[in-house]
Amino acid sequence: MNRADLRGAYLGTTDLTGANMRGARLQEADFSGGSMRFADLGGADLLDADLRRADLQGANLTRTRLMGAALRGANLLDADLGRAHVGGYKLWSVGVVHLGNTPNGNALMFPTYRGWVVQLGDKWRGSLVELRDFAEAAGGDRPHLEAVLREAELEASDRPDTIRRLAIRWGPRCMTGLLPHTRPV
Fold first, then answer.
1. Which of 48, 75, 87, 113 has the fewest CB within 10 Å, making it most exposed?
2. b/e burial code for range 109-136 (CB count within 10 A of at least 16 → b)
3. Across the 185 residues of the chain, what is the mean pLDDT of every consecutive 10-residue run?
């Protein structure tokens, strides 16, 4: 399905685990409740797509256009959001937060059932604790990373139930085939 044109298609019951959908045109497509675990959606256009309750664990979402995408209840554990275009209020409502720009790239924070994950461009990803350790060892980038960390901790404290809700929804389903939680990207 590389570069496929599936605008407006209903694919919610289709198992797209591991599918190559790189560069696909998926505007307004309905994937609600579907499985796209480890799918390659790099560079795809998901403008206004319905991804509510979709299983996107480990999916490649780099350079994906996600403006207006509905992601409430989606499983983003280990999904790669590097350089994803994430404008729009719908992403904000599910906890995906733009934390600012750093010399390492665009800083995003998103919830997974195991906790909050911060991604810095396509160079680094980890938990808030790991971000604190990374900032302490960063040298010249330290002020930028400390600012991102402060913003991330503030945003996480404003959403105390987000992780618990995701753990209830996705925790038992995601216990097999997990990727390492933190890795350079």
1. 87
2. bbbbbbbbbbbbbbebbbbeeebeebbe
3. 86 91 94 93 93 90 86 83 65 68 79 85 85 85 87 88 77 44 37
